Every structure is written in C-alpha cells, then in structure tokens.
Amino acid sequence: xxxxxxxxxxxxxxxxxxxxxxxxxxxxxxxxxxxxxxxxxxxxxxxxxxxxxxxxxxxxxxxxxxxxxxxxxxxxxxxxxxxxxxxxxxxxxxxxxxxxxxxxxxxxxxxxxxxxxxxxxxxxxxxxxxxxxxxxxxxxxxxxxxxxxxxxxxxxxxxxxxxxxxxxxxxxxxxxxxxxxxxxxxxxxxxxxxxxxxxxxxxxxxxxxxxxxxxxxxxxxxxxxx
Length: 226
Known about the structure:
Elements (H helix, E strand, L loop, with lengths): L2 H14 L5 E3 L3 E9 L3 E8 L4 E8 L8 H17 L11 E3 L1 H8 L11 H4 L7 H17 L17 H10 L10 H8 L6 H5 L24
Parallel strand pairs: 1-5
Antiparallel strand pairs: 2-3, 3-4
C-alpha cells in the first residue's frame, strides 16, 4: 500500500473515532477566498451555528492529484494544530468539513463518491479494474443490510440481526488492498450459503432511525483540537 493511503487512513480513523470533528459544509456561509498557501486556499466564512467567523483551508487539488510531499505536509499541519490548539496565540482547530458539490463535480468521471474505492483518490494515475467493481459491490451489500446511504468515512459496523457471513463478505469486498478482495465467483458462492438467509434475517434486523437531515447535532460539541 502506498504511504498516501496509510496517511489518510490515519485521518479517516481519527474522524471515525471522534478525535477529529467533521462538520456539514452547509453550516458555513459567506465563504470568501482571502489567501493561498503551498497546497491550500485560505477562505473566510461565517459559522452560523456558533455565530463566529472562521478560516477554512481548502486543498487546491483532489487528493489523487497531490504529490506525496504535499500530502505529508498537509497531515503534519493537522497534527501540529492538534497539539497546540490551546495556545492563546495559535489558531484553534475545530475539525474538518467537505464541500459535497465539489466532491460530486470532481468525482463525476469516477462514479458516486460513496461507492468509489479509496485508491481512485489517493493513488495518482490509479486505473480501476475488476477488483474496483468488487469494492463497489461490497458497498451495495452493506447498503442493502443497513438501509443507509454510503458516504466517505462511513462505518462498516453491521446492524443487529445481520448474518455474520454476510457481514464478513461485504467487509472483505471493501478491503483497502485490492488483492485481498474476493472474486465474483466466491461472492456468489458465499451468498448461496444456507447460513446467509436474508429473508429470515429481515424479520429480526434492527434498522437505525435515519433523520431527514444530518445537520449538526447539539450533543456533538466541537472540541478545540488539531
């Protein structure tokens, strides 16, 4: 695996585990460019929910177009801000956000963002193959079992009542290393296994309540970090 993927896995894990807050981009308004750095564009914005002005740093390019030194410097900056965020003379880091409209525009040639394997974004010049389709198929299996829409950094945790072999199957399909993903024949064979009885499982699955909007929740108070 490339070091780029390993580095961004650290960022994904930090967000998933709650060490880094992730905010809905729609919370920010009046976004204006105020400067440029080595690999990012600095913007000012109004953070409506907290009624304060903040600075947003946007990457100039997609991750897959950044060279390794830029990615390394980007992540180094995040780590340094995490350590020094409580210093009175240093900007406080509240978390990360993502402009979904930019993501969709930049990803149009690849497909729907939630179904795209990480390599398409993290490995410059990466060419999709059959294993790429297996990854997407694994997302579909996850979507079927959870009734949720996939999005970047989504959790692979199964819901109560999902057959264990079914869960193991879609997780294998979404292995970061393409060589560790099963082939289509193995997938079909597994789905025919008597232990994977979707109809029977459907009667005991406990589906989560999905809110109509996924706006910022008051119980996830931003922590001043990074």
